[in-house]
UniProtKB/TrEMBL annotation:
Lineage, opening ranks: Bacteria, Pseudomonadati, Pseudomonadota, Gammaproteobacteria, Oceanospirillales
Domain of life: Bacteria
Protein name per Swiss-Prot or TrEMBL: Tetratricopeptide repeat protein
InterPro entries noted in UniProt: TPR-like_helical_dom_sf (IPR011990)
Organism: Halovibrio salipaludis
Signal sequence, start to end: 1-27
Keyword presence, Signal: yes
The keyword Repeat is assigned to this record: no
UniProt keyword list: Signal
């Protein structure tokens, strides 16, 4: 009888940790979910794989809505799928949880890429300009500010971009800034970032 009790106790001792181990490994962290999503997206061969990757990023955001890598992963997956309307919506979600000038500018650009119409986005770019001017003593050193002025087609752009270029620390950085802000027209900037053709398709 005592032998039976001992066997039962050993079974209980073994089963409980196994059950606990299963439950703890089933709950993946937002970081793990995003890594799985990136891996799934990288080897995706069709929409089913991309859809699975999106589900993983959404699970990560359900655990932590402010987890920026999950927002960025979703944006990249949606870009791969060519779903620009959803890219714009996700960019808005990102800006709402992390309201920085670069996220604000990206959201404005995503909305323009999705609508293929810059006229409605001028107010958005103007908001970026205003927010940087209000929060920074030297807005002309902020690349987001310079790009927002370019996309806004502001009369301030020419003066500000030259000042920005002069402020760069090396010839290579100055050449890169000149290419980024002067040599590329605004349509090319949007199209290159969102991988859409000049026709907007």
């Amino acid at each position: 009888m005592s032998r039976g009790r001992v066997s039962f106790m050993w079974v209980a001792v073994l089963v409980v940790p196994l059950m606990l181990g299963c439950s703890s490994s089933a709950a993946e962290s937002p970081e793990e979910l995003v890594e799985k999503a990136r891996a799934t997206g990288a080897r995706a061969s069709g929409n089913a794989d991309f859809t699975e990757a999106l589900k993983l990023t959404e699970q990560a955001l359900e655990e932590d809505e402010a987890f920026v890598p999950a927002h960025n992963a979703r944006i990249n997956i949606l870009l791969e799928m060519g779903r620009l309307d959803d890219v714009a919506a996700q960019a808005q979600r990102l800006y709402e949880v992390q309201p920085t000038p670069d996220n604000h500018l990206y959201w404005c650009m995503a909305k323009e890429a999705a609508s293929d119409d810059d006229s409605g986005q001028k107010a958005c770019y103007s908001d970026v300009v205003d927010s940087v001017e209000q929060s920074s003593e030297t807005p002309a050193t902020n690349a987001n500010y310079v790009m927002a002025l370019k996309l806004l087609e502001s009369p301030k752009f020419d003066e500000v971009v030259e000042r920005y270029i002069v402020e760069q620390e090396s010839d290579a950085a100055r050449e890169m800034a000149r290419f980024q802000f002067i040599e590329r027209d605004r349509e090319t900037v949007i199209n290159n970032l969102f991988r859409v053709s000049s026709s907007g398709s």
